[in-house]
Amino acid sequence: MKFLHIFLLVLIASGKLCSQENLISNSDFEKHKDLPTDIGQGKNCLENWINPVLAGGGDYFHSEAKSKKSNTSKNFFGKQEPHSGKAYAGICITRNYREYLQTKLIKPLEKGRNYKVELYISRGDAKWLGSMKGFCIIFSSDTFRLQKYGPPMSKPPMVFRNESGYNNSEDWTLLSAVYEANGTEKYLTFGCFVYREKTEFAIMNYNVEIPGKRNYSHYFIDDFTLTPLDKEITAHAVVEEIAAIESPKVYETGKAHIFKNIVFESGKADLLPSSFSELNELAEYLNNNPIIKANIIGHTDNVGKKDDNLTLSRNRAEAVLNFLKEKNISVSRLSFDGKGDLEPITANDTEEGRQNNRRVEVVFQ
Questions:
Q1: Structural domains counted in the chain
Q2: Are residues 210 and 348 in the same domain?
Q3: Burial 59-72, CB ≥16 within 10 A → b, else e
Q4: Which residues make Cβ contacts (< 8 Å) with residue 343, sequence separation at least 6?
Q5: Which of 194, 228, 262 is the last residue of a domain?
Q6: pLDDT tens readout for residues 64-114
Q7: 94, 185, 226, 352 — which has fewest CB within 10 A?
Q8: What CATH number does the domain containing 297 carry?
């Protein structure tokens, strides 16, 4: 029992049992129907996101866009390289008009559970743009529409506030908070809402003032995540974790094993840091079993050209091989291949299905 107690503390400190599931589809804004050719085309170009304003479409910027108004290297509101990938969204905030970002969650939130919200913002660097002091998130059970300005409302459940203003236009600023769900949340809406907050002395309206020469502000937005935090860690869960550690993992030879936590930057073959834990476990297994060989196979979803997907899948598999090589696994024991989008394990008609198809498999021999 003493061992269980100590082990439980270690698990909590290390985040061993923490879920990393992101409940926001197209959270990095890479999935698009078309490349933008002008500002105001977010509604027409973006997948899984809308601007819930009766007039206007929100903005979308992509590094492959040919228009000078909607490219990331230079656009109508300034310039900013994406926080990751090739694209990001944008919202305008003016005296008489505001834009927002709204999306349907992959699944409803669980009552009483805590969720971590993170996103990155960067103010457009055009000289005529001002800096806002606050952004908000509203969760709802259904989609909703707003007038182009939107009426003042009570304080939203999630508020990000900086009295000096979010004025960083050279780099990205992380907004992060934890939210406890009531169990009705199916949609998320982000933006600079006007809201009222009561104090002992007065009722104050926040986010009303639009600073700058033209009373105009614009923000780029990228990498929007909503992830569930740990549920209560029970002794049963700890016992299962101990059993997994005490019983060395054995992989069946000749069978493809999916490594779900080996992930890459969108559209690239660069391993993300969240992959390293599982990659280190794979390296340890191969070091402990020196006669075992491994064939690494990369797969993609069906978004994009087949030739590009094939190349990307091979490059990703090779990136895993190079990682293992740096962990002193002999290259003579390693091989790699890429299948592109030729061997899906589920349909590609949903974001969840495409995410499952973007995978790395290892066949041990």
A1: 2
A2: no
A3: bbbbeebebebbbb
A4: 299
A5: 228
A6: 999 999 999 999 999 999 999 999 999 999 888 899 999 999 999 999 999
A7: 352
A8: 3.30.1330.60
Counting other chains too, the contacts that 6-10 makes at CB distance below 8 Å and 24 or more residues apart are 7/238, 7/241, 7/242, 8/233, 8/235, 8/238
* Amino acid letter for position 126: A
> 309 and 170 in one domain?
no
| Mean pLDDT rounded to a whole number for the chain | 86
Show the tokens assigned to 12: 């909590």
Q: How many CA atoms lie within 13 A of 214 on its CB side?
A: 11
* Domain co-membership, 194 together with 248: no
Residues 49, 337: Cα–Cα separation, whole Å: 35
User: Which residues does 119 contact at the CB level (< 8 Å), separation at least 6?
Assistant: 174, 175, 190, 221, 222, 223, 224, 225
Q: Are residues 317 and 276 in contact, defined by beta-carbon separation less than 8 angstroms?
A: no
Q: Label each residue of 308-343 as H, E or C.
A: HHHHHHHHHHHHHHHHHHHCCCCHHHEEEEECCCCC
Q: Are the C-beta atoms of residues 257 and 298 closer than 8 Å to each other?
A: no
Q: What is the CATH number of the domain that holds 97?
A: 2.60.120.260
Q: Are residues 196 and 274 in the same domain?
A: no
